[in-house]
Amino acid sequence: MEGILNILVTSAGRRTSLVAAFQDAARPFGQKVLAADFDPLAPACGLADGAFQVPRVADPSYLPALRAIAREQAVGLIVPTIDPELAVLARQAEAFRRDGVFVLVSAPEFVAVCRDKWMTSRFFKAEGIDVPASWLPDAPMAALPDEVFLKPRDGSASSNTCQCRREDLPRALPSVPNALIQEFLSGMEITIDAFLDFQSRPIHFVPRERIRTLGGESIQGVTLDRPELDPWVEQVMRACSRLGARGPLTLQAFLTERGPVLTEVNARFGGGFPLGLAAGANYPAWILALLRGESLEPRLGQYQRGLYMSRYYNEIFMETLPWPR
Description:
Layout: E1 6-9, H1 16-26, E2 33-37, H2 43-47, E3 50-53, H3 62-72, E4 75-79, H4 83-98, E5 102-103, H5 108-115, H6 117-126, E6 134-135, E7 147-152, E8 162-165, H7 169-172, E9 179-183, E10 188-196, E11 202-214, E12 217-223, H8 230-242, E13 247-256, E14 259-266, H9 273-278, H10 283-291, E15 308-310
Parallel strand pairs: 1-2, 1-4, 2-3, 4-5
Antiparallel strand pairs: 6-9, 7-8, 7-9, 10-11, 10-13, 11-12, 12-15, 13-14
Helix pairs in contact: 4-5, 5-6
């Protein structure tokens, strides 16, 4: 896409590092990075070059609001950041494209597989990738292992998840909406920041250990020096490619005694992406380069190993809110 103008990060929330990374990539070309959110106190709104209120994603006026911002603010790229908006924007990506706006989102089929963890398990298992054994709530109790893990099929940020014993399932299941039952996995929990170009070619990845999380988001981590993981990561990325993955992905897995086990795929930037970015995953700059018509060569396995991240709170002070509370 030629002549791309400003960038709009939607559901910007606390994605301050992501906004700053796009600003670093965009400013040499005279572009602004804008933020959209429901909350005027969203920290990213205080750091962006402009901030705009939008309804919640489920509101019928959400898409018209985005279109109005894109039109009035000369937006050429929309970057969604949360799971609920991915399906909405994937279905409308072509309509936005006709208006001259590129939405950084994968194909609707891939977004649907990622959004439903039961579908995730079935798709990647069919691709020959090890995933947790999974059951729906009506599965016979005798078929289940002693220890299980419950999560919503459409959940995110580790909300409403729990570990329990098989005999405790009747008590635990009602507290997990749209529940999926999976085997409980032990081992190192890892995340892989990955990137595919707009033709779904695997370009880059950074695996990192999730040392500590808060609200499902990595707050302490380290990039891994495990070259034996590379073929597995590339296999997962090729499977994603076949279903239409594009742009940033966040893969989650456990390193178990039987090898890596893929647990989730998120078709967006992950909350812990700043560590990948610092290790060489400059995906915002690469996205803008692709939109300028430049080509990218694969850089698989090229990242800084053994880089630690520890995150902390910082404050933003605003004398005037971008819109009333």
